[in-house]
Amino acid sequence: MKRLVLALLLILAGAGVGGAAAIATTRFVVPHPPKPGSAPAAPTPVETQFVPVDQVLAPLVLSDGRLAGYVRFDAGLEVATEKAAEIGERLPLLRHAINMRTYRAPLAAGRDGMLPDVAGLQRVVQAAAIEVFGRGVVRKVAITKAEPA
Question: HEC string of 11-43?
Fold first, then answer.
């Protein structure tokens, strides 16, 4: 009799623990659908345009720090349409920030170091844009032309 009661108690305890675990799992782990009327608003698309940055002259520096030559490149900055005029007015500051970065960045590629590293140019312009305009203002940077000067 004692063994039968102990077996029944263990079965009931196991069922209780298993049921509690199932309830806790459905309550805390499984995501519940949102209530009607409380759905998050979809982000509104922002109209953008490209602001051209023409004829930037920058030094081509080798990985050992020597000057290999110069590169002339054009870029486009994707910004919100309402910020385009403000960005256009502050382009001289962007050019300055680009020049302050390019002499430290190894942008020379190729065997003789006369080819510009376009991905490196894009990173330099993006970092300069963050410094001048702030994070999130310039969405993308497109290098549209790059040639040795």
Answer: HHHHHHHHHHHHHHHHHHCCCCCCCCCCCCCCC
Q: Which of 53, 76, 56, 72 is nearest to 114 (CA)?
A: 72
| Helix residue ranges, H only, the chain | 2-28, 84-89, 91-102, 118-133
Q: Which tens digit of pLDDT belongs to each residue from 29-61?
A: 767 666 776 666 677 788 999 999 999 999 999
Cβ contact 127:119 at 8 Å: no
Q: Give whole-number Cα distances, 120 to 33, 60, 70, 94, in Å.
A: 45, 11, 14, 16
The whole model's pTM is what? 0.69
- Contact present, 75 and 87 (Cβ < 8 Å): no
Cα(71)–Cα(60) distance, integer angstroms: 6
- 88: amino acid identity, one letter: G
| Average pLDDT value over all residues in the chain | 87
